[in-house]
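Batch manifest line 767
LIGAND: phosphoenolpyruvate
JOB: complex structure
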Amino acid sequence: MNKRLIWLIMKGILWFEEIDKDDIDAVGGKGANLGAMTKRDLPIPPGYAITSKVYFDFIEEAEIKKKIEETLADLDVEETDKLQEASDTIKKLFLEQDISDEFNELFSKPFDKLKNGNNELNVAVRSSATAEDLPEASFAGQQDTYLGVNKENYVQSIKKCWASLFTARAIYYRENNNFNHMDVGISVIVQKLIDADVAGVMFSKHPSTGENQVLIEAGIGLGEAVVSGSITPDTYLVDPGDWKILNKEVSTQDFKIIRQGNTTKEIDLSKKEGSQQKLSDDNIIKLAKIGKDIEDFYEGEGQDIEWAYSDKLYILQSRPITTIPEENEEAQSAQSMETKPILKGLAASPGIGAGTVKIIEDASQLDKITSEDVLVTTMTTPDMVPAMKRAQAIITDEGGMTSHAAIVSRELGIPCTVGTGEATTKLSDNEEVTVNGKKGVVFQGIQESMVEEETTKKSHEKVARSALITGTNLYVNLSSPDAAESIAKRNVDGVGLFRAEFIAAQIGIHPQKAIKEGKSEDWSDKLAEGINKVAAAFDPKPVVYRTLDFKTNEYRELPGGEEAEPKENNPMLGFRGCHRNVKSRRVFELELKAIKKVRDEYDHKNLHVMLPFVRTERILKKAIEIMDQNGLARSKEFKLWIMVEVPSTVFLIDDFLKYVDGVSIGSNDLTQLTLGVDRDNQNLSELFDERDPAILKALEFVIKGCRRNNKTVSICGQAPSVYEEIVEFLVKHGITSISVNPDRIEPTRRLIARVERRFLLNNMREI
Ligand code: PEP
Ligand code: MG
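JOB STATUS: finished
ARTIFACT:
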C-alpha cells in the first residue's frame, strides 16, 4: 500500500486542496472532482470532505453496521413495501444515533475554520458516494444536499447524508448490480455557499449544434432562476478561437431569487435593474476561458457548467452536456438538399446505407442478398429476416411505420425506407443506391460522403453509449429475436414490451391449425426457442413477454388463418387481447407452456408476462386463473403486468392493480380508444396525437394510481419514441420505466437524464 493511501485512510477530514482526482475511495466522485479542480486553480468555493473513513468508523462504533446487515439479510427488494420499510428502519438508525464527543470535535474544527468567524456564511452539505460506478443520475436524488446549513443542523445534515446511502432505490440498485451494501462508503462534502449577485449556466460547446462556441446564460441572483427556466436569462456567445463575443442578447428580468437561511425567496426587480447586462464583457470572457479550461480537464468533453459571481467568478458544478445532437445531422441534411433523391417514402429506420440493388420477389430469391446489397421488395415477410440482417439497407414499395419492414429494420438497426410506391419498378438489379432511412429517401449511386459521415457518427455514438444511467428505467420494445443480442449490449435496462406476434408469424402456421394437425407441441417449442433467444440475450435484465395480440384480420394472414378466424367488421375492437387468451384457451396454454419452458428448462427467470388489451376485471381474473393452473402464478420471481390500453383500465386502475405487479401503458390503443380515432386510418392521422390533453390526463391518472398502490408503471406505445415532450411529461410525473423502439434508446436515455437533472435541481431549490 502506498504512503498516500495510508495517509488518506487515516484522515477524517480533507480540505479540497489536499484531494487528488484519484481519491474516490476516501472522498467519493464528487469530492475527488472538487479537489482536482481546486488543484487546477479553477475557482471552486472552498470546502472540505468528511471522508468515508469517518462513515465506516461511525457505523462500526455505533454498531449500526450490524443492524443494517440484519435488516437487509433476507430482504426481497422486489417487494416494494418491505424494501421501503427496510430503508426507513436504516435511515432511522442513523438519524437517531447520538454522536460521540470525538466525532463532534472532528466535525466542528473544520466547520469553524471555514466560517472563519462569519456566522452569516452559508454552507452546503452534500453527500458523495465512493463506488466509482454508482450512477450519479439515479443516486443524485437520493444522496442529499442541504443548503444554508448552520451550526445547529450541521451534524444532523451529515447524518442525513450518510443515511441517504440507504434509500429504497439505492438498496435496490446495489442488490441488482451485486454491490455489497457494506462496501460502499460515503463521504460528506461541506462547502461555502456562494450568495450570487449574478449566476447561471455555461456550455463549453454549443448545446444545440455541438459547435466549438461557449454559450453563457446569466441572470441576477441565484442560479436556480436560470436553471429552472423561470426567467429568461441574458445569453452570450463566445468564440474560443479569438475570445471575441459573437453575440449578446440582454433580456429583462422581473425578479431574482436570493437565499434566506436554508430557503430561498423571490424579490421583484425594477425595470432598470432587470434590463441591464448581467455580466460585464470582461467577466464573460474570463468565464468562457474557465469553461474551456474545465472542458480540457474533462479531456475535451463538452461541459454543462453552473457558475456564480459574487466578489469574483465561481464554478459550482460541471457535468457532460447531454443535449449535443447527433453529429453531422445538419451536414447530412444540407447535403441531402443538394443531391436530388430518386425515390421518396417513409423514414422507417434511421441511418445511411449504400450498396447494390437486389430486387426480391419472394423468399426463394433471398440467396441473392449479400452484405454489399440493398434489399428492395414490395413488402418484407418474416422469412426474409435472415436476408434483411445481411443487407446494407432496405427499400419497400408498400407499408407504413408499423409494417414488418419498418419494425424489423429498426430493431436490426438497418436503414430502411418504406412505402415508396415504386421501388421495385423504378430501380433495377445491380444499380447502386444510397438510402437515407432517417429522411425516407433514396439517392442514385454510392454517396461516399454521406456514408463516411454515417461511419463517424456511429463511432461517436459508441462513445456516447457509455454508462449514462437514469433513475427512470429505460426499456426497449422488441419483436425480432435476431435483434436481441446486439440490442442487449446497449445502454438499456431490459425489454419493456416483447411482442410475440413476429415469432408466431415466423412459425408459419396458425396455432389452431397446428393444434388440429397434432403439431401443437412443435408450435409451442418453436415459440419457446424464439422467446429463449431474447430472454437469454438480456438475462438478468427483465424481459416482459406480451401474450399474443394479433387481431383476427392479422391472424387470417397466417397459413390456416382463413378457416380459423371469424370475419369481423372492426377487428381493432374484436376478438383479441386478454379476452381471446381466455376464450382461445388452448392457444394461450401453448404460449404459457413456452414461457414456462424458457423460465424452468432454460432457466431464464428474467422472463415475465404481460397481458394485452385488458377490458374487464372479470376477464383478467379468468386469464390469471388459467395462468395459475398452468404453473405460472405470480410470485416474487415471476411478475405479471397488464397493458393499459382500454379506458376501462384507466378509470378503474385501483381495481385492476389488485391482481398484478405493474402496468404498461399501450398508448397506441389507448389513444385510439380515448379519441375514437382508428390508428390505422391514414385519413385520420392528423387526429391521432398522443399529446392530446385527454391522453396526457389519462397518463397522469394511471401513473398516480400506480404510485398510490406501490405498483410499477411503464409505457410501451409509440408515444415516447416519437415525442420528447411526452418523455419529459412521464418522467416528471414519476413513471417507473419507459420502453422505446431500439433506434430511440440512446437519445431517450440522454433526454431522461436531462429531465431528471432539471427536476432534481428544482427540488433542491425547494429544499
Ligand atoms: C399499444 O397499443 O400501445 C401497444 C404497445 O400495443 P400494439 O401497438 O402492439 O397494439
Ligand atoms: Mg396495443
